[in-house]
Write a structure and sequence with these properties.
Blueprint (H helix, E strand, L loop, with lengths): L2 H23 L5 H7 L4 H29 L2 H20 L3 H15 L1 H13 L5 H30 L2 H21 L14 H12 L2 H13 L2 H16 L4 H25 L5 H25 L4 H12 L2 H13 L6 H25 L6 H26 L10 H5 L1
Length: 410
Amino acid sequence: MTRKQYFIIILILGTLTTISPFSIDMYLPGFPAIAKDLHTSIAQVQLSLTAYLIGIAVGQLIYGPLLDRFGRKLPLYGGLALYLLASIGCALTTSIETLILMRLLQALGGCVGIVAAQALVRDLFPVTEIAQVLSLLTLVLAISPMIAPTVGGYATVALGWHSIFLILAVITTLILIGIYYALPDGKAPDTTLSLRPMAVLGSFFTVLKQPQFLTYALVSGIATSAPFAYISGSPDVFMNLYKVSEQEYGWIFSFLAIALIGPTQLNRFLLKRFSSEQIIYTTLIYQTVVGLLMVFGTWAGWFGLYGLIGMLFLFLCGQGLTGPNSAALSLAPFVRHAGSAAALMGSFRMGFGALVSASVSVLHNHTAMPMVSVMTVCLIFGLLILLIGQRVIHHKNQPAELDSVSEVAL
């Protein structure tokens, strides 16, 4: 493939993965306005975020088998069409209950982009390049939190929060055009795969019984769900506790998104000297230490607005390293079941993300403690799972379908 083709494919796959981040981040500055307009509380509005994460977790399990059975593009078209209609529904809603339902449907459609993008990486690139390609996708993904909340903040003030969902509908339309004209088909449909419930469950079981997949998918799911505590809690912490405006919140969110970009590109150079396993292990220890300091400092009252922003920045730097490496190690064992593997991996992450988001809402006490505590707990559990899982991997022979872990780290 030429450099131009390579760039276009990465760009389209990257935009596919940004559908859900845009859907999450863009409406965060509108939380207070949504709560006021729909006559409800911010805690209730946070449940629309939880509903979105639940929809992503469930939807990815559906799209995994569909992407393996029908190829990559047909499910993409269907899912994005559902997302488009649900976005319009969100813009027209007049109650928090309807908004929560529309957000659920929006997620069920939009999550196809996450699964399809990861499966297409496995289709179009050799195993030895997966981690580096995923790092590039993470770079595109990292830019969205810099843009989305800022656009959402200004759109909320200028046009009202309903306009946010119309903007999302327009963006999705442009992505659909790019998919149709410039994205390769990827793996051909596999008509031998059955969509009967038992057959689908059998495919998932085939994936789950791989110790390498289970270990790194759980690590990815739990450790990288920590930002969802930040995403869920930050509107209340910054706009209610520290009294920043919608526009200021957007700029704070954009600044913290920079924490994802540098490490993402650093990962490409680290992979030339270290394995993915080494990078993940070191990063999780670093984030755990930062998280514990952040929790203790918040409890002791050390941090004002800028101190908390600084600690969050240091913490979020690790996400750009853990995500692509754990994803690469999770997908490496599979060729035929790449779609199902990508679906399970994404479902783990969003499922834990929904739990994390709901936890912050339930623990809400008008302080930053619920947000920073849940973030830190995610990293502690991720590190424990990594230590246990690596022992199992190193002491158990892998099935023939497993590609070498060391190949991924090259």
